[in-house]
From TrEMBL:
InterPro entries: DUF1028, Ntn_hydrolases_N. Gene3D superfamilies: Glutamine Phosphoribosylpyrophosphate, subunit 1, domain 1 (3.60.20.10). This is DUF1028 domain-containing protein. It comes from Microbacterium plantarum. Pfam families: DUF1028 (PF06267). It comes from the Bacteria. SUPFAM superfamilies: N-terminal nucleophile aminohydrolases (Ntn hydrolases) (SSF56235).
Length: 222
């Protein structure tokens, strides 16, 4: 019912999550980020508590160990899809056997993409390729601030939607970005709860946030 990206950029010390769905207010239920700790998602037959539990666990150990605890925290793990990407180190994900097809996840260095009730596995492949293009193309510079990084995450979602996305359609989307280091203060938290074209509206909100950040930077320099 949802497709999601968790990603980090060590060049800018930013980490974030973005998600889209044919469900109302997906951002309220699916993603979370914690400064200096990581990004997490819980979806499919969503258990919202898994987000906080995964971030708590990854703060003290590895992502693989955190994900391995899901059956201890949840009595129906086969219905859940969850992922966590720590501020440093490998990420991990879980896709339960009873999540709505097509469902699955891909874990790469600095990236996790996951989805369920998708039109097919090429949705996740397109999302991964869109993210990797920013790392592999020398003409693409690192996203310099939280809003620019958020825009990159929204572009990853757009690539997934262009390849089918949620097979029911579209309704809501959200993006969150914070600092991967404890000393940073970057923050973006934007949601589109109900819209005919949620990704286009989310991109518009990200552009507004970028304007706010530029004004704030100018004020600090004055």
């Amino acid at each position: 019912m949802t497709f999601t990206v968790l990603a980090r950029d060590g060049r800018t010390d930013l980490i974030g999550a973005a998600t889209a769905s044919k469900s109302l207010a997906v951002g309220n239920a699916v993603i979370d980020v914690r400064r200096g700790v990581g990004a997490a998602a819980s979806q499919a037959w969503t258990n919202r508590a898994l987000r906080g539990r995964l971030l708590d666990a990854v703060a003290a150990g590895s992502a693989a160990d955190a994900v391995a605890l899901i059956p201890r925290w949840d009595d129906e793990p086969a219905l859940r899809q969850a992922a966590v990407l720590p501020a440093a180190g490998a990420g991990a994900a879980h896709t339960g056997a009873d999540t709505s097809p097509w469902s699955g996840h891909l874990v790469e260095s600095d990236l996790i993409v996951a989805g369920n009730l998708l039109t097919g596995e090429d949705v996740l492949g397109a999302m991964r390729d869109a993210w990797l293009a920013g790392d592999e193309d020398p003409t693409i510079t690192p996203a310099p601030d939280a809003a620019a990084f958020a825009a990159r995450l929204v572009a990853v979602l757009a690539a997934g939607e262009a390849h089918g996305g949620d097979r029911r359609g579209r309704q809501s989307a959200a993006v969150m970005v914070t600092s991967s280091g404890v000393a940073g203060d970057a923050w973006v938290d934007l949601r589109v709860d109900d819209h005919d074209d949620p990704l286009a509206e989310l991109h518009r909100l990200v552009e507004l946030r970028a304007s706010d950040l530029r004004l704030d930077l100018s004020a600090r320099k004055a």
